[in-house]
Design a protein that fits this description.
15 helices, alpha/beta, Alpha-Beta Plaits, single chain
Length: 599
Amino acid sequence: MNKQPSSIDGFTPHRAGGQAGQPLGGSIHNPQPMNHVPVTVRPVRRKLPPQPPMPPKMPGLTKAPQPQPVAINRRRAARQPAAPGLVAGGQPGLRRPGSPQAPNAQRQPGPAKGRADRSNQNDIAASLAQIDLNNPGEPRGKKRKTPEQLAKRKKIIKWSIITALLVALGIGGYIIAKTLLATDSVFKGGVFDFAQKAQLKMDENGRSNILIFGTSEDSDGGQHPGAELTDSIMVLSIDQNKKSAAMISVPRDLWVKLDTTCAVGRQAKINTVYMCASNSGKNEAAGAEALQKKVGEVLGLKVQYYAHLNYKVVSDTVNAVGGVDVKIETSDPRGIYDPNFDWRCNYQCKMVYYKNGQVAHLDGDHALALARARNAQGGYGLPGGNFDRERNQQKIIRALQEKALSAGTLANIGKITSLVDAFGSNLRTNFEKKEVRTLVDLGNVVKGDKLRSIALDKDGEAVLTDGNHAGQSVVMPVAGLFNYTKVQAYITKQLLANELTKESARVDIYNGSGVAGKAQLVANDLQAKGFTVGAIGNAPVGDYGKAKVYQVGEGNEATKKKLQQLYGTTVETTKPPVTTTAETKFVVIVGKELTVGSQ
């Protein structure tokens, strides 16, 4: 028979005799029998034992790990016998009254049963209920997706991406189709030629020269005289290898000889060439070809391509990119003013009226007005007339190129389609479709300091000047009417800018062929190639073959090498049979066998 314990879990029972293991005082689940002697319980006050520290929070857990519950249902747990040394709630060291004590259990004081125990049990049960037994690392309510759910989610994401790509391809396809349709009448060749990337045609110096000219047949509804006159003439010379280019404006009032008989006569301003050769616009290709030839003759360039624009393309392209910013520069402190275009707003505005130094934001109409302004009808600020107008045209082109290639434009579908529309109906050219990709690539890299302007009226280096001829105000070469030698030499020097032009070694030309004027023809040819020509005269009659070349002094290797290539001869260092000066570096004596232009 077991010894009766003196205290159980902090309580000291006093009763009459009984059997060991029999419940003492009963419980709420085991009512006392009617003849049972009540037990007097004397409470013992004590402090709660210190709680063990909480374990550290593990990664992936929102709460510290809790012990697994022994019984979630308290009613069911009350009906079951507690484990040795445990009371309901699973706390070690506490046991229910009437349960046998574990052999080595250490008695600890504890609080009286009641509300405190139920509160602690409720807190523990609530904490345990938060644990997801399927995935202890996640709180209940955030269950892991099943394989079926994950597969469905991946399928939704995949089709969302495919849909987005199809939309993008649809937009891109629309733009491409629109471009192909719009440019089919612009470029030569079949549609599939766009996939090719052919190099542009080049001259002997590796340059591709493009004539750009504009007519005003679309201005004022085309109901005005001179609609087929080329008010703007420009050459864009591109070096494909160096990725650089230069713009050269040709004054529309330059006086030239016409190659065909025209209503204006056999001589006229260069802006009539297209009109005469095209029969007032009826044969555009013939007119463009004639203008290419004449401009090439003036500048000393082989012009391979042309681009014919009307006024509408200027205003439409500027509007398509959202306008352009142009800095106003003039020698007049007041700025510039040209009332010639104010009729467009019934003289209630000033279309061309800007302060000097102002950065003007121009829409299509104002950009076109500035491109045509030249001090008409009492204006001011454009004393150079045509030359000032050409400079402003080049500024607008630069600004338009920069804006068209900017990220804001390339990312805007509306602007791209507007540009396609603007060019598609207002541009004609002899470029082939297989050359377009090369042209576009060059347009992306040839900008900023890679694109420069060459002025033919530059102070100190002017090769053209204003004058009067046949009762008209015209532009003519400073060397004389129809004499373009200085123009060609200046253009060559500006475009090539190589070792030959840097040396600027003087070459004297003498005629030993006996054919009058042959030395002058050779001099013109050498100037066009970038040589610096000095004296021109006659040499003693003799056998010089094609030509004899003499060097005076040393150095100037680039000039020496080029002369040897041109005339297929070795440069001699003996004294030439002509008089030289201190500035003379080379002497060329032209022989009978030389055909000018065949070098």
